[in-house]
Amino acid sequence: MGTPSQGSVAVAAARVDLCALDLMPVFAKEMIAGGVAGAFSKTAIAPLERVKILLQTRTNEFGSLGVLKSLKKLRQHDGVLGFYKGNGASVLRIVPYAALHYMAYERYRCWILNNCPSMGTGPIVDLLAGSASGGTAVLCTYPLDLARTKLAFQVNSSETLSGALKQTSAQPTYGGIRDVFRCVYSEGGVRALYRGVGPTLMGILPYAGLKFYIYEGLKTHVPEDYKNSVTLKLSCGAAAGLFGQTLTYPLDVVRRQMQVQSQQHDQFDGPRIRGTFQGLMTIKQTQGWRQLFAGLSLNYIKVVPSVAIGFTAYDTMKNLLKIPPREKKASGTGHGAA
């Protein structure tokens, strides 16, 4: 007698869960899917991301080393966990960033289509919507990126320990994300938390726009029978990411050096970087133009798996959350791939 009753309860619970999922707004589902995808992809490439930051900023210690030697040196100084130093801040940043980026792209895209019909529905719309969504996400999450960079910049080494008295004031040691916020805020208030946001926006606006522009443009050339192929989606996304990264990478180097220059007075005696174009010229004159592309090859290595993992996780979450394809949505709730 108890079995039918238990079965009825289970069916009722399942219907309630299904109903709750159906009631969830599409934009909320998009934010959840984007956040989960961002967390998975960022954690997977965390070791490569930290080495890239060290190649960009600690030029005296890592500038002449390759990727493998840098990974080996990092493991000797900080251990295996050192590969993930700063990843907590990175994940805390990427989850809201990716969630906002995906969702804002859809909202901006719908707004453009509804208010500027003369622009059509081509890749130009994706370029504008992608740029606007990238800028929105950056402004909302930039302090977390600053914290991630400062934590990743720290390296425990015998040289640092032996020269502790000399470097105490030049290189503050941060105990975590909250400690970074406290120290940086005490240095210059809210403005200090956004140090380097200028080159970040100048880099993300074209990069995010180009990423969507190229990705959506390449998808239009995919035969209809292969539209749902994950492999082709990953290939299109990887190509878009690589192309966009190459064009905007020097701005990323300027941003990183602006973020950590208060920590590296002992390494860099040149003029302080105070702006994007001034930073590009300063790095070129004092460190050479090659420094503007330091770590770019590593960025190529990490972009492909990052895009692959991100797309796979995002597609999985879209299926789990029952997000309808863009083609089947009303114009006010359109959705696109990342």
Plain-language structure description:
The chain is mostly helical. Helix content is 73%, strand content 0%. The protein has helices at 2-23, 26-44, 46-57, 59-62, 67-78, 87-115, 123-153, 158-162, 164-167, 177-193, 197-219, 230-260, 276-287, 296-320. α2 (26-44) runs antiparallel to α14 (296-320), α7 crosses α11 and α11 (197-219) runs antiparallel to α12. The longest helix has 31 residues, at 123-153. It is globular, with a radius of gyration of 22 Å.
Q: Which consecutive residue ranges, at least 5 long each, have pLDDT under 50?
A: 157-169, 327-338
Radius of gyration: 22 Å
Order of helices and strands: HHHHHHHHHHHHHH
User: What do the pLDDT scores average to?
Assistant: 76
Question: Percent of residues in helical segments?
Answer: over 70%
Question: Which helices and strands appear, and what pairs or packs with what?
Answer:
Elements: H1 2-23, H2 26-44, H3 46-57, H4 59-62, H5 67-78, H6 87-115, H7 123-153, H8 158-162, H9 164-167, H10 177-193, H11 197-219, H12 230-260, H13 276-287, H14 296-320
Helix pairs in contact: 2-6, 2-14, 3-5, 3-14, 6-7, 7-10, 7-11, 11-12, 12-13, 12-14
How would you concisely characterize the structure shown here?
The protein is mostly helical. The protein has 14 helices and no strands.
Task: Please name the defining characteristics of this protein.
14 helices, 0% strand, mainly alpha, single chain, globular, 338 residues
